[in-house]
Design a protein that fits this description.
This protein is mostly helical. Helix content is 73%, strand content 3%. The strands form 3 sheets. Strands 1-2-3 form a 3-stranded antiparallel sheet.
Length: 526
């Protein structure tokens, strides 16, 4: 039986029981993720093979880029909430992203072409700032399509999350194949076309959003500020941000220092607020949240090897049977689509029987799986012989263990931030969570740099260096995971879950878009 759009009792046009606007957002986000992950799959190869940066330098550039992608949503989210509204912010972000992705297609002559290299830095800057305007806001519009008590909300976010992962998988497969088979401009061009399709769809579908995501004060946007209409002044701020990021991305060490200083100030402010202004239980919950936030930095620092050092390892030392290495970046997204419903069902099943692990215990389990993934790859490579290619099954295994670890941490972490933050600190705590993701991404670049620090010593030596680093980080992750599991009862006690009230909780889904390709949205708050 075919499903046709129907009108809900309130006049809302629906499809499969959901507003048609949800599917506009689904496809817009799918194409945005297609472009982002398609470009990301190729980036480390573009840096090493086209611009001829060393593995060490490429890892740091990659880490700085991904860190900034997680920082700029703070600006984009603030401007949307305060002035622009989510729809215009998403539209502006999509324009910047489309421009940035097409700029990536101007590859020049490679390593010695300084003019084209400047265009490359500019392309990254457009993508970073565009992500800041779009990433923070499109999932907020999904939430606005439904009343907070609407029973369809979980299903809506599950549908939306499928778009995230479908786009991530298809982008890695198609852009990766085109870029490594026919040329960089084909892969990056495909990413640009995908982003353009998402932009066109979002513009055409505006009426189906039913006025959601509009500016909180439309009249204020038309007022003149320093001789410029406020709305255009905000767009100008975005352009200025692009110029600023264009300068910053070329000095990765500065980004590292800024993250460290800003992170210390942010954590210090949160702890000061908790100690001075909150009662004992609320303060304890903030302490528990900060423990989880700081632990997540290590997780993302290791998990995000996927796009950098692990991508290079797959390209150089794995028996891929001729399949371009970048296409293996799709595995994580595919695993999430397949496994997320199973994890959601498992937590529910265990929870009803009083057997569900606590949030901190899940963090510990995530670290254990993350570390085991690295060690499995090391053991598989050593068993095959250092002089031989590693069987591809071990790449599937490391991604499997890392994905199951992600599903124990990423959605659970978002849920925990939602649970533990007092309502008036919800955005601050969620911002700190994503700041930790940015810090982890930058640290991932430094770890990736360590795997390439002896690249000049020859192919065999470099493989040994990578495996030595993976052995070290694997055991560190397992050790940290064991420690977290052991102290999880203490952290759980600090959470004071028995005295939480439902009306204290902010809506998790409205606060931020999930990281990595996406998360399962049947979180443990429900």
């Amino acid at each position: 039986m075919a499903h046709t759009p129907a009108a809900a009792p309130g006049g809302e046009r629906t499809f499969l029981g959901h507003p048609l606007g949800l599917f506009i957002l689904f496809f817009a986000e799918m194409w945005e993720r297609f472009s982002y992950y398609g470009m990301r799959a190729l980036l480390i190869f573009y840096l090493t093979q086209h611009w001829l940066f060393s593995d060490e330098k490429s890892g740091v550039i990659y880490g700085a880029y991904t860190a900034l992608v997680y920082i700029t949503p703070v600006l984009g989210g603030y401007l949307a909430d305060r002035y622009l509204g989510q729809r215009k912010a998403v539209l502006y972000g999509a324009v910047l992203l489309t421009f940035g992705h097409f700029l990536m297609g101007f590859e020049g002559d490679g390593g010695t072409d300084s003019g084209a290299l400047n265009i490359f830095w500019l392309a990254l800057s457009f993508i970073i700032v565009g992500s800041g305007f779009l990433k923070a806001n499109i999932s907020v519009i999904v939430g606005q399509l439904y009343p907070r008590t609407d029973v369809r909300r979980d299903g809506a976010y599950t549908i939306f999350y499928m778009g995230i992962n479908l786009g991530a998988a298809l982008g890695s497969l198609l852009c990766g194949y085109l870029g490594q088979t026919y040329g960089w401009s084909y892969g990056f061009g495909a990413a640009g076309v995908g982003m353009l399709l998402g932009l066109i769809l979002f513009v055409i579908g505006k009426p189906l959003l039913m006025g959601k995501g509009e500016a909180p004060d439309p009249a204020a946007l038309k007022k003149s500020v320093v001789g410029i209409q406020l709305e255009w002044l905000l767009y100008l701020i975005g352009v200025v941000a692009v110029v600023g990021i264009w300068q910053l991305i070329q000095y990765q060490a500065v980004i590292g220092w800024l993250l460290m200083v800003a992170g210390a100030l942010l954590v210090g402010y949160v702890l000061f607020t908790a100690v001075v202004k909150l009662d004992r239980e609320a303060r304890d919950r903030i302490f528990a949240a900060m423990f989880l936030i700081l632990g997540s930095i290590l997780f993302w620092a290791l998990f995000e090897q996927a796009g950098s050092s692990l991508n290079l390892f797959t390209d150089r030392y794995v028996d891929r049977a001729g399949v371009p290495a970048s296409m293996f970046q799709s595995i994580n997204a595919i695993y999430i689509v397949l496994l997320a419903p199973l994890f959601a069902a498992a937590w529910t099943f265990l929870g009803r029987r009083g057997l569900e692990p606590s949030t901190p215990a899940k963090f510990g389990l995530a670290m254990l799986q993350l570390g085991l993934g690295f060690l499995v790859l090391v053991w598989g490579s050593q068993a095959a012989g250092m002089e031989n290619l590693t069987p591809v099954i071990f790449i599937f295994l490391i991604y499997l263990l890392h994905t199951t670890g992600e599903l124990c941490l990423s959605p659970v972490g978002l849920s925990a931030m939602n649970r533990l933050a007092p309502a008036h600190m919800a955005s601050l705590i969620m911002g700190t969570w994503f700041f930790a993701s940015a810090t982890g991404n930058f640290a991932a670049g430094l770890i990736a740099a360590a795997t390439g620090s002896e690249a000049a010593a020859g192919e065999g030596a470099n493989k040994a260096v990578v495996l030595d680093v993976y052995t070290t980080v694997g055991w560190v992750a397992i050790g940290f995971g064991v420690a977290v599991v052991l102290i999880s009862p203490l952290i759980k006690k600090l959470m004071h879950l028995d005295t939480l009230k439902d009306d204290d909780l902010a809506g998790t889904a409205e606060l931020a878009e999930p990281q990595a390709p996406g998360i399962h949205l049947k979180d443990e708050t429900r």
